[in-house]
Every structure is written in C-alpha cells, then in structure tokens.
Write a structure and sequence with these properties.
The N terminus is likely disordered. It is globular, with a radius of gyration of 23 Å. By secondary structure, it is α/β, with parallel strands linked by helices. The termini are far apart. It folds into 2 domains: about 170 residues, Lyase, Ornithine Decarboxylase, Chain A, domain 1 (Beta Barrel), CATH 2.40.37.10; about 240 residues, Alanine racemase (TIM Barrel, Alpha-Beta Barrel). The chain binds pyridoxal-5'-phosphate (PLP). Pyridoxal-5'-phosphate binds next to α11.
C-alpha cells in the first residue's frame, strides 16, 4: 500500500504517518511537527514525505527487479502530472525513475533536473508540432501516439528535422476500469487512444511511414483503480496484439501498461504495488515462455497517484468558524484553487486537526475563501475546532499542487519536503506581484 505499511488503515492518517516517519528516521533528534512546519513556511503549504515518496517508488522498482527478466526488463516512468515539483522529480530520478510526460513543459522539467530523455515517454492526445520538435531534438524514448492524425503529423515533423520518431500506439482496450467517469479513460467513448479493433491497421499504417518507428504498445485505462483485474485484462489484450503484430513482422520492444493503481483515501483497499507488479510479470513471463519464443520485451509502468498521493498533505489554518442556520462552516486559508479535486470530482480527502480539543465535535463543512459554492475541501466532518487551528488535508500529494490555479489572484501554496527532522522548502509561496508580472496595461 502506498503509505506506511500495509496494515495501516485509514484511521491512521497520512499526517501522522508523514511526521512519525521523520521521528522514526531520526529517533534521537527532536520530532518535527506540523506546527513547526506551519510556523516556518506559513499556510497553506503542501508537505511531502521523502521517506513515503521513496517507499512507494521503490515498491514498483524493487518488484520489477524481482520479477522482470534482466536489468532491462522493466522501466517505471513516473507520470509527473500527478506532482511535478523539481525536487520530487530529482528524488525519483536518483532512484532510477523515467518519466511519463504530457507536455513540452513537463519535458523542460525533466531536462532541468538533468533527467535522461532516453527514459522519457510522451503521452497525451494533443501534442503540438513545437512539442514534437522539442521531444525529437532530445531523442526521447518514445511518443505514445493517440490517433492517426497525430501519427501523420509526427511523421511529417520527424521528417522535417531528419529524424525517426520511436512510437507506441495507445490502444484503447475497452475494459471498464470501474472508477470515476472523469478518470476512466479506457472505454470506447473516451477521447483517448486508438480503438482496439483499429490497432492492427494503425500499426500497419505506422510501419509504412518513413519517419515513424513502432517500438511499443501502451494503454492507460483509468486512475484510482483499487482492483488490478481490469489492468490485467487490458494487459492480456495488449499481449494478443503484440503476438498478432509479430506475425506480420512488426516486432515491438516494449509493452506499457500505463498507470492507475489507486491509493487509500477513505477505507479504500488498493492492491499492493508489489503484488500488482508480480501479477503483471507472472503473465508476461508465462507468455514469453510459451508464445513469444522467449524474446525479451520490456514492460513499462506509468504510475502517478500511487507514488505521491499518500506522500503529501495540505496544511491549512482555520480562519473563521461560521455557524449557519443548518450548517457549520470552517473557513480555512486553503481553497479549491489549491486543491481542486473535491470541486472537480467530489473527491473525499481526510481532514485531521493537528491539535485535538476536548470540546464536543460539530459537523463542519471545510470551505475556502474563494467566491464559488464549489469551493469546499471536505463536507460533513465531525470535528472539534477553534479559530487558528491547523488542519491537515490528507492524501493530497497527487493532483493537488499540479492542478492548483491562481483563481481569485491567490498565490499558489508553498511546497515543503520533510526528510528526517529537516523540512526543506521546495517551492516558495507565490506573491501577488509575481502573479501579474507577465501582464501589461494598454499604452
Ligand atoms: C495520468 C496518467 C497516468 C498516471 O495515472 P495515475 O492514476 O496517477 O497512476 C499514466 N499514464 C497516462 C497516459 C496518464 O494520462
């Protein structure tokens, strides 16, 4: 499970986990508390645990080492749209991660931390010519192509710069990931990928293009999957395609099963990362033995949420308690612009007061200061609160800061990594003058 140990249930919050870890890592030194972090850096602040990040990435990497055949049998490409702070990317790069990017901007981040473009795969339905040129100039590992028009555009752009583009087709295996409709991506009606039925003909077309080199196949059926059965079903479908392609003389070097393993937000019991990786390789190794003539094929994973989701919290301070006719509101200094997931997907995040009071609890909606009724972070929580209290919004490491905006001219939150008894500022809080620095008034 991507936080602490498998036996820890939702009741044991990520906030305790993150700060306990710092105590465990440095038993003799003073414990770092959320209060100190808030004093040092203010609120709202995203706080990540280096130990938790490391643990979840290594859960993938070590399982790959155990079950993949040979050092080159697997690659874990962190889907950096989940959280793309340079410090987090650098940490994961040092642990051996490749990166799954969805924009030229994300490639610039990889380059900024000295990441190896040969470990970069480029996903997304709308790659521009400029982004293609940038990625080609750095010789990235692979473009995950999502449509026939994209294939033709990439062929043309690669030709214009005298290169061959390595590609993988994102195939839509049409399996139901059984997750939220906004984060389900592998069904026929989704905008992503090439339909399973069209995959063979699209590969044939790709193989005939002079500046396109098909090297892989990929899929990504959705996010926050607690059960790996749909992923394994998708894997089986990809394996069938790899065989069918081989019969036509198109030999692929890698198979990329995408991201998608979920995390525990509230009583969720996601499959353990190591177990999932083990099951993937059980199929791959079996297939290699029987059908694929023992030929090596590299297996790639694109995890995002399961690496960072429970490695981060959002620290916020209660500004006001407002007791309405039918509801109690705790108005905090974080808002939908900081953590968009509740407004966007009605996502549930745990809320943990940093200091517990003995007064009886009331039922609160935790809301932000933004002028939108959708600006809420949590609803109907039994809490005993006072003005000035610090709250930790849990499981906020993934799709938190990366989705943040400046709505209401609010500077984005600071970001901090806790490492042992040290807290490192990894992104300063934005101030208003920075927010309008790129704007100008009419002369
Ligand atoms: C978002 C995304 C991922 C990561 O998904 P998680 O659910 O965060 O693991 C992986 N691959 C692609 C193509 C994506 O769009």
């Amino acid at each position: 499970m991507p936080y602490c140990a498998a036996s820890w249930r939702a009741a044991v919050s990520a906030v305790r986990c993150i700060f306990l870890r710092s105590r465990i890592a440095q038993p003799r030194k003073a414990r770092l508390s959320p209060i100190e972090v808030a004093k040092l850096f203010g609120t709202p602040t995203y706080v990540y645990s280096k130990a938790a990040l490391t643990e979840s990435f290594l859960a993938y990497a070590n399982a790959c080492k155990t079950y993949a055949q040979g050092d080159d049998g697997a690659l874990v490409c962190y889907a950096m749209k989940a959280s793309s702070n340079l410090a987090i990317l650098h940490l994961l790069k040092e642990l051996g991660a490749g990166f799954d990017i969805v924009s030229g901007g994300e490639l610039e981040r990889v380059l900024a931390i000295g990441g190896d473009p040969k470990k970069v795969i480029f996903s997304g339905v709308g790659k521009t010519r400029e982004e293609m040129r940038l990625a080609l100039s750095h010789d990235i590992l692979c473009f995950n192509v999502e449509s026939i028009p994209e294939l033709h555009r990439l062929n043309e752009v690669a030709g214009s710069v005298g290169k061959q583009a390595r590609i993988s087709l994102r195939v839509n295996p049409n399996v139901d990931a059984k997750t939220h409709p906004y984060i389900s991506t592998g069904l026929k009606e989704n905008k992503f990928g090439v339909a399973f039925e069209d995959a063979l003909s699209t590969y044939r077309a790709a193989a005939s293009l002079p500046h396109i080199h098909p090297v892989g196949i990929d899929c990504h059926i959705g996010s926050q999957l607690l059960d790996d059965a749909p992923l394994l079903e998708a894997l089986d479908k990809l394996i069938d395609l790899v065989d069918a392609l081989a019969r036509e003389g198109i030999h692929l070097h890698h198979l990329d099963i995408g991201g998608g393993i979920g995390i525990n937000y509230k009583d969720d019991e996601p499959v353990a990362i190591a177990k999932y990786v083990e099951r993937v390789f059980a199929r791959i190794n079996q297939w290699r033995l029987h059908n694929h003539q023992g030929k090596p094929i590299k297996v790639m994973f694109e995890p995002g949420r399961s690496i960072v989701g429970n490695a981060g919290i959002l620290l916020t301070e209660v500004q006001y308690l407002k007791h309405g006719a039918t509801k109690h509101f705790a108005i905090v200094d974080a808002a939908m612009n900081d953590l968009m997931r509740p407004a966007m997907y009605e996502a549930w995040h745990g809320v943990e007061p940093v200091v517990q009071h003995s007064q009886p609890a009331k039922t609160y909606d935790i809301v932000g200061p933004v002028c939108e009724s959708g600006d809420w972070l949590a609803r109907s929580r039994e809490l005993s609160l006072q003005e000035g209290d610090l709250l930790a919004i849990l499981s906020a490491g993934a799709y938190g800061m990366t989705m943040a905006s400046n709505y209401n001219t609010r500077g984005r939150a600071a970001e901090v990594i806790v490492d042992g008894d040290q807290a490192h500022l990894i992104r300063k809080r934005e101030n208003p003058s920075e927010l309008f620095a790129l704007e100008s008034i009419l002369k």
